[in-house]
Amino acid sequence: MNNYSRQREIILEVIKNSSIHPTVEQIYNIVMKKESKISRSTVYRNVNILVESKIIKKITVPNGPDRFDYLNKPHNHVICNVCGTVYDFLYGFN
User: Fold this and answer.
1) Angle at 23 between CA 39 and CA 21, to 5 degrees
2) Angle CA(84)–CA(85)–CA(90) in degrees, nearest 5?
3) Which residues contact 93 (CB under 8 A, 6 or more apart)?
């Protein structure tokens, strides 16, 4: 991963503390409350760095925006075909 960034750390904390598998736009809106001067492009760039570094996982949602999840334990995801909500699926993992 690139050099340490306070903004990236805030973004990662938002994703770690989220149970909704947030979109980048949702991440941006939450981060704005903590770091009001952060730009949308900074959030997008840092989310991509975290995905490339395999610290977070990108979940592709058909017909909806990508969502993101912190990789703290092995699990899969179930995506609702109606509303696009993403749920953790832990069956078969210890």
Assistant:
1) 135
2) 125
3) 73, 74, 75
Tell me the per-residue pLDDT of 2-22, one tens digit each, with 9 for 90 and over.
Answer: 577 899 999 999 999 998 999
* Beta-carbon contacts of residue 1 (< 8 Å; ≥ 6 apart): 49, 50, 53, 55
Distance CA 72, CA 22 (A): 16
- Cα 41-61-28 angle, rounded to 5 deg: 25
Q: How far apart are CA 41 and CA 38, in angstroms?
A: 8
> Where does the chain show beta strands of DSSP type E?
56-59, 67-70, 76-79, 86-89
**Phi, psi angles (nearest 5°) of residue 89:** -125, 110
In this prediction the pTM is 0.84
